């Protein structure tokens, strides 16, 4: 078996004008076209769906979150790799690219070294991991606003991507290996796929993480046929060179295309009057259609029909509530005249009596509070309710800092022989993250194993911690293992790397997300 290591370009800081192409850092521009080309599953699985949590208010320039900690030495240092600089590996030119050879022992050493390296802080790799396509004004406006630096490819992360030449992973598969077509686009010239979504908003783009991680990784190609391995290595090196040249070209341009997000992605106080009036006019239009009411003729200069048929109007979206909630709630308040709190309660029923019947005597509210009537929460007792504030499910707010309080509260309930309800808004992201962290702590499981443990114990709702929460849980695993306890002994490293975990989650989600 032949193996070839392809190092990613050197970090920023070197001259762009005088250095050869392979010395420039990768700052790719990506999209989702090739991912969407995968064939959908024709048979949906019943009673299962992937919920998408409402993101809450878009972060302002000065978000209502605790200030960032001062930079530390750990945050500023990039991940180290045994593969870079590639001084210990035999090199040779293939066309205009350089590739390096590595043996099995070298691969093992490099992977073990990487697994023992601390992961970069979430603030250094997000929102880049979310996917920030230049044409996706919604995603960009939500995450980066006017801060262009957040769009740049992070230089603090340096992973290892293992590629099976030929793409057959049914045999001779190394852990974490991917196929070439998961991140490459083949044609007259081989290029990296553009996997960042061109439109829409999502904080759960697990399916693009393998391709994005490959852009910031040293790439190892292996296989049974040395000729096929070398050819694949050549194509990957050529794709890297295309990205490097593209970065140079884009660096000369000072033109940026700006766009305004859709109404569902803007929150007060950034709303303008015409945008708020737009929702009001939409509700009025729906109300008139459903009640057979014609709009008034403002000019009065043309005859108008007086009778129209009342219509039933279906509001729907992919999962039945994510995209339609804002419009449904707005229309319900418009049609009934109810206040927002009353309309919300009428649309969402909270069964507090069921909680007591199930032996739940503690409530942990993560980022949200139960919308009960005044006095209902007091019946539980002040010490039996904990509210974690200022944590939105927006891919920006961190949750790691709250792990200690939350898990201590859950442990208190265990000592009192009572169950604890952990909830957020939808119950699949913030609350699921806390539950996974608790399972990791008490059952001494790695993040991938704890994720599967919690996911398998839900009914028809699949847990979906977004990318940042998932990354923070991987860091939580790192912290638990390094602090010892029942893990004991020297930390041997992570079971799976970030790109591998994201890829497996995307594969688990695929049967339930056909057509997305």
Characteristics:
516 residues; alpha/beta; five-stranded mixed beta sheet; 10 strands; Tyr_Pase_AS; Tyrosine specific protein phosphatases domain-containing protein
In brief:
With about 525 residues, the chain is of the alpha/beta class. Helix content is about 35%, strand content about 10%.
Describe this structure in words.
The chain is of the alpha/beta class. Among the domains are: 273-346, no CATH class; 350-483, Protein tyrosine phosphatase superfamily (Protein-Tyrosine Phosphatase, Chain A). Helix content is 34%, strand content 9%. It is built from 16 helices and ten strands. The protein has helices at 33-36, 73-76, 104-115, 122-125, 137-143, 209-215, 226-251, 273-291, 325-336, 340-347, 352-357, 403-415, 430-443, 447-456, 467-482, 498-509, and strands at 2-6, 91-94, 97-101, 159-164, 184-185, 191-192, 217-223, 360-366, 385-388, 419-423. The strands form three sheets. A five-stranded mixed beta sheet has the order 2-3-1-7-4, sandwiched between helices. The protein has a three-stranded parallel beta sheet with strand order 9-8-10. A hairpin with a 5-residue loop joins β5 and β6 (191-192). It is globular and about 75 Å long. It starts with a strand and ends in a 7-residue tail after the last helix. This is Tyrosine specific protein phosphatases domain-containing protein. Residues 14-32 have a biased composition (Low complexity). It holds the Pfam family DSPc. Residues 401-469 form the Tyrosine specific protein phosphatases domain. One of its GO terms (molecular function) is protein tyrosine/serine/threonine phosphatase activity.
